[in-house]
Amino acid sequence: MASTSSTFRITPSTAPLSAEQRQQQLQSIQFGRVFTDHMAVVSYRNGTWQDPEVKPYGPLSLSPASSVLHYGQAIFEGFKAYRQPDGSISLFRPDSNSERFNRSAARLAMPSIPQELFIGAAEALVAIDQAWVPSGSGESLYLRPFMIATDAFLGVRPSEEYLFLLIASPAGEYFPQGLKPVSVWASKEYVRAAPGGTGEAKCAGNYAASLLAQAEAKEHGCDQVIWLDAIEREVIEEMGGMNLFFVYRDGGAPVVVTPALTGTLLPGITRSTLLNVAGDLGYQAEERRLPLTQVLNDIASGAISEVFACGTAAVITPVGEIKGRGFAQTINNNENGPVAMALRTALLGIQRGTAPDTHGWLHPVALG
Ligand code: PLP
Ligand code: COI
C-alpha cells in the first residue's frame, strides 16, 4: 500500500473544542482522561484493511455479539508525539510499536496491519489534532492504537472482521503524585504471565487479569505490583505497565540491569531505548535473570543503589520501596536517584528534540 497519512479520508469534526476550551483541558493534564477531537479508524473485511478514515472522536456502534466482548480478541499499543523546539511534532519510535502490535496480533490470531497504515493513522491524527500536542516539560500527546474483533458470532474462533482505531490523549506525569518514587508490592498470590501464555503480547486480557493484584498492592499501601515468574514465584519480571531496571554500583561506573526477556515479559520499547541510552551515558547495561531474594540482599548490602521503572506512559519512575509478605525494603532512602534521573533527562532530551537524536528514533510528522 502506498504511504501514509494521505491514504486516510478526513472528515473534520463540526464541533471541535474552542482554543480556549482546549487550553483549559491542557492546563492540568491527568493521564488518559481527555481525548482529542478526532480518531482514526480502519476496517478489516474480506481479508483486507479498508476505508482508512479520520473522523470526529465519538462512540462506536457494535453488535452485542461482537467477539471482542465475549472472547477478548483485543490488543493495543502506546506511543507518544512530542512537540519539538521549532514547533514541529515528532513521533518516538512508531516503527517499533507497529512491529510489536503485529507480534501481539499474531499471538491473538488477529491479522497484521501494514506499518504504512499504523504510522499513517498516527500521522493523520496528529496532523489534524496538532493543537492538542502540549509543549510543557514532560508533556506529550499519548497515542493509543488498538484492534478489536467485531464478528457478530458466538462461536469460539478467530473473528473474520476487525476494527483498528487510534485515539489520542494529552499526557503529563503518569502518576498523580508527580515524579516521586513509587512503592511496589511483589505478588506471590497472582501471576501475570506463564510460559506459552500471552505475557509478551500487549493484549487487553493481560491487564484485566492484573487488576486484582493491583488492588492487593493498594491494600498493602503500595502503588504498583511487581510480577514474579509463574513457576518459582521468585524471578523478577516486570510491573503492571512498566519494565524494571536495577542500578548496581560496582565501584566505578553504574551498571544498569534489567530482567532478561524470557517470553513472559512485555518487551518494552522504553526498556530497549534505555539499554542504548545507558551506553551513551557511559554506563554498562545488562539483561539477566534477577531473583527477588538476591535483589533484596543486594539492596540491603548497598550493591544496588537504585531501582526504577520505565514505560511510554510513565517514562522513568524511581521505585522507593519493595514490599511483599514478610518484608519491606527501602531503596535509596525513598528518593529519586541520580542514575534514574540522568537517564530520564537524556531520554526526554532526545524525545523533545533538545538533545541530538543519534539513534534516529524521531519520526517527524508533516503538519500540512
Ligand atoms: N510492561 C507492560 C506490561 C506494559 O504495559 C508496558 C507499557 O507499554 C511496558 C512494560 C513498557 O513498554 P513500553 O516501554 O513499550 O511502553
Ligand atoms: C504505556 O506505557 O503505553 C502503557 O501501555 C502502560 C499502561 C498505560 C497500560
TrEMBL record:
One of its GO terms (molecular function) is L-valine-2-oxoglutarate transaminase activity. This is Branched-chain-amino-acid aminotransferase. Keywords: Amino-acid biosynthesis, Aminotransferase, Branched-chain amino acid biosynthesis, Pyridoxal phosphate, Transferase. Pfam families: Aminotran_4. CDD domains: BCAT_beta_family. Belongs to the class-IV pyridoxal-phosphate-dependent aminotransferase family. Its cofactor is pyridoxal 5'-phosphate. Pathway: Amino-acid biosynthesis; L-valine biosynthesis; L-valine from pyruvate: step 4/4; Amino-acid biosynthesis; L-leucine biosynthesis; L-leucine from 3-methyl-2-oxobutanoate: step 4/4; Amino-acid biosynthesis; L-isoleucine biosynthesis; L-isoleucine from 2-oxobutanoate: step 4/4. It comes from the Bacteria.
